[in-house]
């Protein structure tokens, strides 16, 4: 089983021709609300895309915004452990999605900032704890240390990007980052290969958007080319990757296969609007994995990352 501790937000999404530049007003088109937040997205991805039994610790206000978040988790089969904050509203995110499927996101954390170390229940029976960085960093560190002490594997998606304290990095078994987050954690602006050399975490997985992903596991390099899709909205693609990857690891699969499942889940999420609404089913992920990725793509990915041929 997987335990996720993290954020839950109600997303307010506007589609527009492009993302506004500083000082620019853009006339948008369709407006919708979607359940979101990195923690909740990843919990649903573990359960729905990964097919793994999943629990989640989250904080919600005593307001109408909390209701669709709880309903979405329950619909995916996630068991929620809710910290209620009557005096603090549920977290929200304001998202602009452009016609080329890119997005810009501003988060008002709200109740997410109320999660404390004392809120984590005992982790008996869980194999993996999945964390992100939209909740207080000291709480994330305390959760990871508690998991390590209980023999639970710690998977950290270091997003949003920030410098991580050594006490947190020392507990991480699997670090998942995108290219920008890798540079922040490694404190280096060189190639992916150079940044990986600066991290002592046993396993680091780097997502690279339309190129695919790579990983370093105890010195061994693994490559996974992207599954080709036509993107509609990239929101929650990374979260879908993290959830499906962690679920595969929790089910005893190899890291190479887990990267395939994560890549397929992330690709499928790009083909649908919204955050949790875009997360695919396990059957859909399995079907895409069986189709495989383009021949020769690994060589291009290796060169991009700066690994020796």
UniProtKB/TrEMBL annotation:
Keyword Magnesium: yes
Name under which the protein is recorded: Ribokinase
Described purpose of this protein according to its UniProt entry: Catalyzes the phosphorylation of ribose at O-5 in a reaction requiring ATP and magnesium. The resulting D-ribose-5-phosphate can then be used either for sythesis of nucleotides, histidine, and tryptophan, or as a component of the pentose phosphate pathway.
Presence of keyword Cytoplasm: yes
The record's free-text note on cofactor binding: Requires a divalent cation, most likely magnesium in vivo, as an electrophilic catalyst to aid phosphoryl group transfer. It is the chelate of the metal and the nucleotide that is the actual substrate.
Ranges in a coiled coil: none
Main location (coarse class): cytoplasm
Names of the cofactor(s): Mg(2+)
Sites where the protein binds ATP: 178, 207-212, 238-239
HAMAP family for this protein: Ribokinase (MF_01987)
Activity modulation comment: Activated by a monovalent cation that binds near, but not in, the active site. The most likely occupant of the site in vivo is potassium. Ion binding induces a conformational change that may alter substrate affinity.
Active site annotation, chain numbering: 239
Pathway(s) where this gene product acts: Carbohydrate metabolism; D-ribose degradation; D-ribose 5-phosphate from beta-D-ribopyranose: step 2/2
Enzyme type, top EC level: transferase
Compartment annotation: Cytoplasm
Entry EC no(s): 2.7.1.15
Keywords attached to this entry: ATP-binding, Carbohydrate metabolism, Cytoplasm, Kinase, Magnesium, Metal-binding, Nucleotide-binding, Potassium, Transferase
Catalytic function, reaction form: D-ribose + ATP = D-ribose 5-phosphate + ADP + H(+)
GO MF, any single term: ribokinase activity
CDD domains with a match to the protein in the record: ribokinase
